[in-house]
Design goal:
The chain is an alpha+beta fold. The protein contains six helices and nine strands, in the order ααβββββαααββββα. The structure holds a DNA duplex (13 and 13 nucleotides).
DNA sequence: AATAGGATTTCCT
DNA sequence: GGAAATCCTATTC
């Protein structure tokens, strides 16, 4: 995926990433198909780290699209985001879940579980499966290099759902979580979100 | 099946 | 010192 892909409105990038792949070459190859993402906007979004301001680690959200923003959540889990926004704007997309395509064996080892649906069905799980850490990967260019996005097959409009974001104390009601409604590799099923919609319909309302 | 509690780092008050 | 964009295990129904 080239830089231009990420230099668009953040929710649009979150939706567009579904179906594409996140790959890692070093130290061993892994490839997963992205099935769930969330958009985090600028300081006007109460759920976004941007509320912490540009002088904090979240200052990454102000920088050039296409680079990784990796932080630690609850002291344990690494969260992989990609900076994504229009010029002079702010935001990033959290990669929340993906389906193993290649390199399953090594990912099973890192995760300590067998079932393919438990390899990367959650942001902390996904980072662990790929071996992504804040110290190693925060700020790396995800358009090229060992850890990067690669073009896969785009998910059809009628197959992409939007829901509120997960795990937020504030701003969770915004419809900014995007998922492949047919995938069994998501972090939580659509049925658990009474208030969901069709992604492209919601995006058009802006 | 559902829920409760523990793990344990990083950043900011 | 406390909160944080979570996950796993154990315990209970």
């Amino acid at each position: 995926m080239d830089r231009g892909f990420f230099a668009r409105p953040t929710p649009e990038v979150a939706r567009a990433l579904l179906g594409h792949e996140i790959v890692r070459e070093d130290p061993d190859p892994a490839r997963l198909r992205i099935v769930e993402t969330e958009a985090y906007l600028g300081p006007e979004d109460p759920g976004s780290h941007a509320t912490r301001g540009p002088e904090t680690q979240a200052g990454r959200l102000w920088e050039e699209p296409g680079q990784a923003y990796v932080y630690v959540c609850y002291g344990i889990h690494q969260m992989l985001n990609v900076v994504a926004h229009e010029p002079d704007r702010i935001g990033a997309v959290l990669v929340r879940a993906a389906e193993p395509v290649d390199g399953l064996g090594r990912m099973q080892e890192r995760r300590g579980r067998e079932a393919p649906t438990e390899i990367a069905s959650g942001p902390g799980r996904l980072a662990e499966a790929l071996g992504v850490t804040r110290s190693e990967h925060d700020g790396v260019d995800l358009t090229r290099g060992s850890l990067r996005f690669e073009a896969g097959e785009e998910v059809a409009a009628e197959q992409v759902a939007v829901t509120g974001r997960i795990g937020l104390s504030e701003g969770g009601d915004h419809l900014l979580r995007f998922l492949d409604r047919d995938s069994s590799h998501v972090s939580r099923s659509l049925a658990d979100d009474p208030d969901h919609g069709l992604a492209d319909v919601e995006l058009r309302k802006r």
